[in-house]
Every structure is written in structure tokens, then in C-alpha cells.
Amino acid sequence: MSEADTGAPSPEAGAYRASGRTVPTRARERARYDRELVHRVLDTSYLCHLGFVRDGAPVVLPTLYGRIGERLYVHGSTGSRPLRAAGGPRDGAGRGLPVCLTVTQVDGLVLARSAFHHSLNYHSVVVHGVARQVTDEAERRTALDAIVDHIVPGRAEDSRRANARELAATAVVRLDLDEVSAKVRTGGPDDDPEDLALPYWSGVVPVALTHGTPVPADGLAPGIGLPGYLAGAVS
Amino acid sequence: MSEADTGAPSPEAGAYRASGRTVPTRARERARYDRELVHRVLDTSYLCHLGFVRDGAPVVLPTLYGRIGERLYVHGSTGSRPLRAAGGPRDGAGRGLPVCLTVTQVDGLVLARSAFHHSLNYHSVVVHGVARQVTDEAERRTALDAIVDHIVPGRAEDSRRANARELAATAVVRLDLDEVSAKVRTGGPDDDPEDLALPYWSGVVPVALTHGTPVPADGLAPGIGLPGYLAGAVS
């Protein structure tokens, strides 16, 4: 599909190009392509759902990710099937694995008067592309730090970094942010005018992912208190 | 892959059969097949990530779902590309769309002393199968109620049900629970023994999806108070 067919905004500074894959057929007005929004949604989550094709069928697995600039990183065992398919140091080039990486934050339950208009408020980002194994050792280390810091900012440097054995067992794959879109729904229900007087409660139940009081592991070394970066994680 | 190859438990009453697709290559000990657990995970979420293949590439989209017994239901516009691919009333048989439907609940951030052992506590369910359009009108209505009640139990009957025009615009697809697995991680960090004395805080930050105080829509009909079923949604 050519750009002219998509009905989406032209590429501009600070925006991802809209493609046939990133322009939705439905709720097109909710699709966004600006980098700042995409980065913000990506940076306030740590869990993505990674889709790929295996034996012709789709597979969707939850996994952690990190972001450095316009690159996302996902890691796993060198024994994992999808990461092997993304190519690796041992087999050279890394032919790459077509993936779709999706991040969704739910912000509210939207209860309309009509069942039909029930919805969610949410922010989501969908990234299409080809995941490729990272073979450069410096980039691998930086990516692993980014994944840990994505869970809790500041954590990577306050942990024992991967040793040679662990690095050898870890596959890191990279997905460039190129064919990307965000989708956002906010606000109240969109009931039809003729339904507004119906005797049903209608509105939004706010939803948030909240973090509780950290629970220390058994056998912490003496004198290890809760680090400052974790006080910020509690909300 | 034959059953004998999987290393997974044999089928038993109350368990889904393990298949080549539902036995993970990694963290095999975390995979579960019992129906009660699968149902519980499915029933305490309302958002899934639905994966399918379009033009040979994977697509993963967030969407709502409902469950009735051993069937999951997803709905959307009759104009949406994946739902059209699942076949419909107008084109008869409904050839079906291979999908992977994944539901993930994050329960905690697991901060180990070593970066390598950082993890999440979570419950997830992965369903592989073929989604087919539902053409029976009674099943379509029951499925739509199930999707609304999945967001907030008790809500469907306290809303205006879909009229003929809305029903005609809504595609409902069904995915049978057959090739299904759950994965669960609980507990603290799995640090290596030689790392236990390292001077890094280690433990679990609990994570939960919480629901705030419902915000009424503008222009509620007079005298409509907060329904009882919403008091339960607030946590």
C-alpha cells in the first residue's frame, strides 16, 4: 500500500512513517506516529508481547524489553527457539526473525450505557520489524543493562553484571523502531445521543499498575537497606 | 512432536493435553496444563494479546475477550482485517484464522543480586488454535454478554444490549480451549549460592493492577447511583 493510500499523516520530523501495516483499518483517528509519545509508552512499561511465526502459525509470548534510542532489545536463552531463529554469533550473519512487538497499558474501564460502546482507555505501541541477534559484545552488555534498568531505573549498576558464562548463555536481539505506531484512547464513554437518558450508570473506572512495598529476599547481606531507586518504584 | 518427546505430563482429567507448541523449550518446570489454573488466569484478566499472521508476517494486537466454559470469544468490527480473515456469515463456512491468544498478569518485579537472574513474577496463559466466526445469533449474543461481563461481572444485564444494527456491525470469533498452557513464576530471586553475600539489595516488588474510584460520565440520568457490582471492582 502506497503512502497516499493510507490516509495517515506524511512523515515529518519526530514522526515515524505510516505504512500499510501501521495504519489501522479501524479507529484510525486513535493512531499516532510521533516519536515522543511512542517512547513515553515504551518507557513506562517493561513487559511486551512478542509475536513471531513458527511453522506457519503465530506465537505470542510475554517478555521483558529495553530501549536505547531507536532500538528495542529483548533477551533470552541462546536455547530458545525464536531467538535461535533470529540468527546468532555461531551462524554468522543472522538472517533475522520477522516480529511484531506490542506494549499495552490499560488506563481505564469505559462503561457505556450501551454494551456496544464498552471499551478500554489505554496506550499501546505496535512495532513491526525484523529482530536480529546482537553479536557485538559491547552492545550486548549495554542492551542487558538497558533491559534491567527498564524494570527499575538505576538497578543495573547496583547488581552483579553478567559474567562470561552468563553472557555466553544469553541471546540478545535488536528490533529497530521504524515501522511503529501508537494508539491511545482516553476520556469517557461514546454513547449514542439517544442512549444518554437510559437508566444505566456510565463512566470510567481508572486502572493502574501499582507497585507495593518491596519484600527483601531471605539472607540479604547484613546492613543492606532498601535502595533509593526502589522508593521511587513504589506508587 | 509426539507426546513422548515433550517431557510433559500425560493428559489427565482436568488437564489440557501438552503439545509440541505448548511445551516450552525453556523454564519447562513453570508450564502448567490444569484447567482450573488456566480458567483462573483467564478470568482475572480482560485484556489479551491476539497474534495472527498477515501477509506472512506476525501481528499482535491487544483486545478484550470473554470466556464461556472451554470457549474464548473475541469481538470486533466486521470491517477489521483479522476478523474478516476468520470468515463470516456472508462467506459461509468460515475457514478460520490461526491465532495465538496470550494473557499475562504481572505479579512482581524480581530483583536478584545478579543482573542475570532478574525476572518477573507472573501468571500467563497461551492458547493456540483456529479462530472461527460465530454465526449463530444466540451464541453471538451470549458471547457479547460474556465479553462485557468479563470486564465487570454483572455489567451486561445493567446496560443496553446490542440492537440489530450493532449486532450486524459486530464480528464475534470463537477460539476453543484445547491447545493451552499456563506459565507461573512465584517467589523470590534465584540467585546463585556464590552471589548471596554480595552487597546488593535483593527481593520482590509486588505489582498489581488496581482499580480506582469510578468517575461518572457527564449527563447521567437523574438518580443513577454507583452500581453494587462496581464497588467490587475497586481495589
Write the layout of secondary structure elements.
2 copies of one chain form a homodimer.
Chain A (H helix, E strand, L loop, with lengths): L2 H4 L24 E2 L2 H9 L3 E8 L2 E8 L1 E3 L2 E7 L3 H5 L11 E15 L7 E15 L3 H15 L12 H6 E7 L2 E7 L17 E9 L3 E2 L11 H4 L4
Antiparallel strand pairs in A: 1-9, 2-3, 2-6, 4-5, 5-8, 6-7, 6-10, 7-8, 7-9
Organism (chains A, B): Streptomyces tremellae
Protein name (chains A, B): Pyridoxamine 5'-phosphate oxidase family protein
Describe the 3D structure.
The structure is a homodimer of 235-residue chains. With 235 residues, chain A is α+β, with helices and mostly antiparallel strands. Chain A has a single domain, classed as Pnp Oxidase, Chain A (Roll). In chain A, 18% of the residues lie in helices and 35% in strands. Chain A has helices at residues 3-6, 35-43, 81-85, 137-151, 164-169, 228-231; strands spanning 31-32, 47-54, 57-64, 66-68, 71-77, 97-111, 119-133, 170-176, 179-185, 203-211, 215-216. In chain A, strands 1, 2, 3, 4, 5, 6, 7, 8, 9 and 10 form a 10-stranded antiparallel beta sheet that branches. The longest helix of chain A has 15 residues, at 137-151. Chain A is globular, with a radius of gyration of 21 Å. The termini of chain A are far apart. Chains A and B meet through strand 2, strand 3, strand 6, strand 7 and helix 4 of A and strand 2, strand 3, strand 6, strand 7 and helix 4 of B. Chains A, B: Residues 1-29 are annotated as: Disordered. Chains A, B: This is Pyridoxamine 5'-phosphate oxidase family protein.
